[in-house]
Write a structure and sequence with these properties.
The chain is built from 3 helices and 29 strands. The N and C termini lie far apart (51 Å). Strand 19 and strand 20 form a beta hairpin. Helices cover 5% and strands 48% of the residues.
Length: 293
């Protein structure tokens, strides 16, 4: 959502009339968010109008957050100088950035130009590989306000049930979340329909952003008979993530991929298009048939 003072993955500006409380719980956002003009930007909320009225619990934000001016830019909340309760949540963006000042950007809560702590609560984490930028400079260590920065977590730990159940503290919540190793938590809910109550997934934990996947360089080839095919276009698709590579003159290729099952499509003029499901680790040597037309 957005308005003229903030843009966020869920709410642009939390303008709580007469201090009315607002609680956001059990949510996942994966979006690229940009605050234009004078707007603040946050992975969940862009700006908060009053202190001590907003509570965020058990939420995940991914993607990127940026502001084109020096306004609050944060992985979960942009700002400004208002106290917000944030508990057991994770800012997992690839990058959070602002124009030029380090006092307007951070991993959890963006604005701290008044040198105060604005996050009340604990067990909040941030992806350790997140790039926090002010202009062309990187914020590579926490400022004094550690609560605004969050505890670092590696992509390896993020894909374990131990992290979500124990370290971040979601272990007792099985009504809203399903935990499996090698993926993020799955957000689910129960919904009424004509046949009664059904359980539906709001976010699949297998739909991991490419930058959070643990990848390794994989090699393979595309041939027709014994001859390698040059410039064949290979697409590896898993969930919403998609990677492409073209073969070398001898038909070989290399690409960084995570383990898992992909839909692979290979195209080359003069040959029949090849599409199938491929599991990695596994064989990545492919054969194309010439198009008889």
């Amino acid at each position: 959502g957005s308005n003229n003072s903030g843009v966020g993955g869920l709410i642009g500006a939390a303008q709580n009339a007469q201090g009315a409380p607002l609680t956001i719980e059990n949510c996942v956002v994966n979006a690229d968010i940009t605050g234009k003009g004078s707007s603040l930007a946050g992975g969940l909320i862009g700006s908060v109008s009053n202190s001590d009225v907003v509570t965020i619990k058990k939420c995940i934000a991914m993607g990127t957050v940026s502001t084109v001016e020096d306004k609050g830019s944060g992985g979960l909340v942009g700002g400004p100088g208002r106290s917000v309760t944030i508990k057991n949540s994770a800012a997992l963006q690839e990058e959070v950035s602002t124009k030029s000042s380090k006092y307007f950007v951070d991993r959890i809560f963006g604005y701290d130009g008044d040198y105060k702590v604005h996050v009340v609560g604990g067990q909040n984490f941030a992806y350790q590989g997140m790039k926090v930028k002010y202009g062309d400079k990187l914020l590579d260590k926490p400022k004094d306000e550690l609560e605004n920065y969050g505890v670092s977590v590696s992509k390896t730990d993020l894909l374990t049930t131990d992290f979500w159940k124990n370290k971040i503290g979601w272990g007792s919540d099985t009504e809203n979340w399903k935990f499996d190793n090698n993926q993020l938590p799955t957000l689910k809910m129960k919904r009424s329909n004509d046949n009664g109550i059904e359980e539906v997934n709001i976010f699949s934990g297998a739909d991991i952003p490419e930058y959070l996947e643990a990848t390794e360089t994989k090699t393979g080839s595309v041939k027709s008979g014994e001859n390698g095919i040059a410039d064949a276009e290979i697409t590896f698709k898993k969930g919403s993530s998609e990677k492409k590579v073209a073969t070398e003159p001898d038909g070989t290729f290399s690409i960084d991929l995570a383990d898992g099952t992909y839909t692979v499509t290979i195209k080359k003029t003069g040959y029949l298009t090849w599409t199938d499901s491929v599991t990695i680790p596994g064989n990545l040597d492919f054969i194309l048939e010439a198009n008889p037309v």
